[in-house]
Design a protein that fits this description.
Layout lengths: L1 H12 L1 H4 L3 E7 H11 L3 E7 L12 H9 L2 E4 L7 H10 L3 E3 L37 H16 L4 H27 L7 E3 L6 H7 L2 E3 L12 H14 L3 E5 L5 H10 L3 E5 L13 H16 L1
Parallel strand pairs: 1-2, 1-3, 3-4, 5-6, 5-7, 7-8
Length: 298
């Protein structure tokens, strides 16, 4: 009899685990994974822009609206990667929304050719939204996600704080490892060509020069003059690290590679996770990119 009563008491205390997980919507796959890492079994995360999909060009659809209305919290990256219509839809649904990049000082989205891409895409503004390519900044990002989860589900506060602490430790280790990997390469060799300008934060953190025919948005089309200038730059500087991206049509990069006689070294995950390994988590994605970049630059 006694054991039976203890069982009931134990069940009452673990009620939080038995409760249905809180439905949360994240705007794209990388943010979705970070939310899941911090939320654990207390959250059920759905993303609007899935693995291998391009957040820059995503149009809100009726399925997205249904997900938003069913959620207790909507998380967005901010810095212009999501279109304004998403914020409007969330406001109409009266679901609380939090911005994961809050408090992170963004880089300006001007490219090497000295012009900003604001003109091509008014949504994108003049800020570079790709903050996830710096694991140091991601500690703040993860903190913002945890704060939003705690606000939406105060009963889970200690659960979220513990998972945040573990995740921030992992991000710190990721940064240390990436710095060691890149420091092994002479600074003059740290030059890379990618399809669009997604790696500015990575370049700034680890002193790597990224060259991209497109600006920070995949919507901005490069001119023939820009492409010719890049081909010239690759030849002059002997750049060997040339990559396509999982979210982009690789024809532009393939053409540049062909005209410069440089081999495309593989694929980087820029704005989206992959559906399966190696890049189906943020940490996995970052490790894959750093390893691929280091090997190509060597």
């Amino acid at each position: 009899m006694k054991h039976w009563k203890l069982g009931i008491i134990a069940a009452a205390f673990s009620g939080s685990l038995l409760a249905a997980p809180m439905p949360v919507v994240a705007s794209f796959s990388i943010l979705g994974d970070i939310t899941q890492q911090i939320g654990g079994e207390r959250v059920a995360v759905q993303t609007l822009v899935g693995a291998d999909q391009d957040a820059h060009v995503h149009q809100l659809n009726s399925g997205d609206i249904r997900k938003i209305r069913a959620a207790k919290l909507v998380l967005v990256n901010g810095l212009g990667i999501e279109k304004a219509e998403l914020a409007r839809a969330v406001q109409q649904s009266k679901v609380p929304m939090a911005v994961a990049s809050q408090g992170i000082k963004p880089m300006a989205a001007a490219d090497d050719h000295g012009h900003s891409h604001g003109g091509h895409n008014h949504d994108h503004g003049t800020e570079d939204p790709h903050v996830w390519n710096d694991p140091v900044l991601m500690q703040t990002y993860a903190q913002n996600v945890a704060n939003a989860l705690i606000k939406a589900d105060p009963a889970g506060k200690s659960h979220y704080q513990q998972r945040l602490k573990n995740y921030q430790t992992e991000l710190g280790q990721l940064n240390t490892w990436a710095a060691q990997s890149f420091n092994a390469i002479p600074a003059a060799q740290r030059k890379v060509l990618t399809g669009h300008d997604a790696f500015g934060y990575l370049g700034k953190r680890y002193n790597i020069q990224f060259i991209a025919p497109q600006g920070v948005s995949t919507e901005a089309e490069p001119s023939a003059r820009q492409v010719a200038a890049i081909i010239r730059q690759i030849k002059q500087q002997g750049i060997k690290a040339v990559f396509s991206e999982n979210i982009k049509d690789s024809r532009m990069v393939d053409r540049i590679a062909k005209e410069t006689g440089v081999k495309v070294q593989g694929k980087l995950y820029s704005d989206a996770l992959s559906k399966t390994a190696p890049a189906n988590t943020y940490v996995g994605m970052f490790r894959h990119n750093v390893t691929a970049l280091s090997n190509a630059m060597k």
